[in-house]
Amino acid sequence: MEHNSIADYEEDEDVEIPDHMLRDEFCDPENPVALNFTEISAAAYKIRDGIQQTPCSLSQMSSQYDMQIYFKKEFLQYTGSFKERGARYTLLQLSADQQNKGVIAASAGNHALALSFHGKSLGIPITVVMPIVAPLMKVSACRQYGANVIVKGNDIGESKKFALRIAKKKGLLYINGYDHPNILAGQGTMGLEILSQVPDLDACVIPVGGGGLIAGAAVAIKSLNPNVQIIGVESVQCASFSEALKAGHPIYTQSKSTLADGLAVPTVGVNAFETAKGLIDKMVLVKEEYIALAILRLIEQEKAVVEGAGATGLAAIIQGLLPELKGKKVVIALCGGNIDTTALGRVLERGLAAEGRLVRFVVTVSDRPGGIAELTRLISDLGVSIKDILHERAWLKSDVFSVQVKCVVETRDMEHSKELEQSLRKKYAQVIWGPVHQENVDID
Ligand SMILES: Cc1ncc(COP(=O)(O)O)c(C=O)c1O
């Protein structure tokens, strides 16, 4: 019986396949395989006509951070990420029989997009299992590329089990997006490109999820120039590679919600870890607010729309985690641009808040005619723009001729915000500055 629809697969789920049979044969924790340089060269040759050579250009942000920053713009790949490199190479390496049967993968986004797109262009059937938390934009894009998309699993771990089960039943090949050996080889081609574009770089900063990209790129770069520093970046919310390095092997590390959803892999790849562990010079963990800030700066200054995972490299610089790179030539991989428009709106607001350009405060003013007008005049005289304003009387415990005004305002920068705060404090006795966590702020 042909199985094309989700309903068919869900029916099949009743037939239990024991967990021990659900192992991914290419990613064996007992026998991890380290990638070598020859495989990356082979991959570069094979995918050369199907992948973009993305720019690696000097950024005008360089002077701001006192280093020569080059951005490797992998978000300009057709489906918006570097994942196409590994996906295309892996599909090209399949036997004719496997190409006919097709492949399956679990992915919350970029790997699924890359496989779907290149599967279509090479005529290979693709099934992707995406967790229910996968961004809608990515789910519908995979469908548009003609993939059989199954949304199943609360997280990527559950989706993977489901995908492995289908793989066993249908004889489909499961392709791990950060650990299949051919995926690592394909991702390594980004490293080759970087070296040809910026031959004398001192360091390369690479976001780390399951570890496939850093493993491939590190082999490519260190094989040709061992002096280049390889720096990995994770969000503090999902530090699985850092934890694996501490433990000496991949270890389950709970992922918490993060803007860098592409990096939320609880256990890094065994082959990726084996390959990368001796090649990484430093790992850093970035905070969420710096990821938001990096996304904002990339849009404003670089005209680049980059998703959270892709912006972590710049976030590490902004957070001041890499002071040793000052004066150096540094390539930062901007490796993905697939961010939901709604998420982008929220992220930009967070970024503006983190930079002190979006400020919230509560001030108590006179409720007599002109009281609020005086406040808004003070604000406008400073060139500050009011985004939201709300006034409340009923909850105040002080004199009945006072009113509490809550404002959200937009300023030029942190200095400008400070100027506003000082002016408000000079004029008004009761000012609460910054985020107000209690909804009914009680000013006596
Ligand atoms: C945009 C982006 N950057 C970085 C990564 C991390 O790659 P890897 O899982 O190979 O470490 C991912 C993974 O999906 C990604 O989507």
UniProtKB/TrEMBL annotation:
SUPFAM superfamilies: Tryptophan synthase beta subunit-like PLP-dependent enzymes. One of its GO terms (biological process) is isoleucine biosynthetic process. Residues 47-336 form the Tryptophan synthase beta chain-like PALP domain. Its cofactor is pyridoxal 5'-phosphate. Coiled coil: none annotated. One of its GO terms (molecular function) is threonine deaminase activity. Keywords: Lyase, Pyridoxal phosphate. Pfam families: PALP. Belongs to the serine/threonine dehydratase family. This is L-serine deaminase.
